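Subgroup meeting minutes
Present: P.N., E.W., G.H.
Scribe: E.W.

1. P.N. recapped why we're keeping a running log of single-chain structure predictions: easier to compare across weeks, and new members can see raw inputs and outputs side by side.
2. G.H. added today's entry (177 aa).
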Amino acid sequence: MPSQFAADHLVARQMYRREIAPLTFESHEWELLTRLPARIMIAATSAEPDSDRRTVDEGIAGINAIAAGADSDSDLVKAIVGAIYAEADPNPPTAEQFRDPPHAIAEVLVSCRAAALVLDARATPADAVAYRGWLEAIADRVCGAARTGGLLGFGGVVRSPAEQNFLDELQLALRNV
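Output recorded in log:
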């Protein structure tokens, strides 16, 4: 049985999601903000072609990084995590890669620029910073979850040049630069 604190926290998150978020964001904006974490996770797994094992490791790291947003100081990030886990998604985030990585990653970066505009227009500065930081942390954890290159688990790098390029582009896109 959850503690009273946990129950109160859950009620507060649900109230934010149901009452404040819809008043602050248009439905298409809210959908953009709630879908973007999973899309960024998949873009990060797609930044560098990997083995199935590495892709799974990256996917698990991404799912854990998304869930870690529940511990954020930001009510917006907590509400988005709550919305992600509250919806009955028949296709929840999984360890996968895009079929056409360059095109799909470019689309994700365009969505990041759109999200940056939404955040600047509708979120508090603190929530905007927290949301951007959370998305960057998701991508960073995914890109750092499995070494690239090397032989039989020896050598290689934590982040390939392609992964570092994705992280750099993501940071610029989230600031709409």
